[in-house]
Design brief:
It is built from ten helices and no strands. By secondary structure, it is mainly alpha-helical. It has three domains: 57 residues; 60 residues; 65 residues, Orthogonal Bundle (Arc Repressor Mutant, subunit A). It is elongated. The chain starts with a helix and ends with a helix.
Length: 184
């Protein structure tokens, strides 16, 4: 790459001295830009491969968790989160859950990933969204704003609630509420 750059600069200087047409200069610059893009793409692909190698090494603990143990742990996670409605606490972390269940966060992550295909924050957000949707449809919560419902469901902020809601439902909570009241 450095050699290509040096050669390009040398040729440009040579063409400037000899008064070469600007067309040749633009061809050389285009070739240089192409070489630069190719080098950047190669670098990005190499870094991505190295990053993925690290990921597979990180996930060795998935193999240490048997499918039966993963299922049992996942059921415990769901019971703990839903029966006690711990997902409504925006500060409730996988570390706290692991401590309460007598395991570690890696096993929590592995059990959720193996049983649901997602991660712990996605599981918690899905429980929060389910709760929020129920409240948005409920006549008992009609006096509450969408923001209040999001905070009550466990989202840390209005923005976090709206982003998660739109990602799953493709509309804002207010639009969802209007649609669900028209259906009734």
């Amino acid at each position: 790459m450095l050699l290509w750059f040096a050669l390009t600069l040398y040729l440009l200087a040579l063409f400037n001295k000899t008064g070469c047409a600007s067309g040749v200069r633009s061809i050389i610059l285009s070739a240089f830009r192409f070489q630069l893009r190719s080098s950047c793409i190669t670098f990005v692909l190499t870094m991505t491969e190295k990053k993925n190698e690290g990921r597979s090494a990180e996930r060795v603990y998935y193999n240490k968790l048997t499918p039966e143990r993963a299922d049992a742990l996942y059921i415990l996670i769901l019971q703990k989160l839903t029966e006690e409605k711990l997902y409504r606490d925006s500060g409730y972390t996988a570390a706290r859950l692991a401590e309460e269940l007598g395991t570690n966060t890696r096993y929590i992550s592995a059990a959720v990933a193996l049983c649901s295909g997602g991660n712990y924050p996605a599981l918690v957000n899905s429980l929060r969204l389910r709760d929020a949707c129920r409240m948005l449809r409920s006549p008992r919560c009609a006096a509450m704003t969408a923001e209040e419902i999001g905070l009550l469901a466990g989202f840390a902020s209005r923005q976090a609630f709206y982003i998660a809601f739109a990602r799953v439902h493709g509309c804002t909570p207010k639009e969802y509420r209007k649609q669900s009241t028209h259906r009734l």
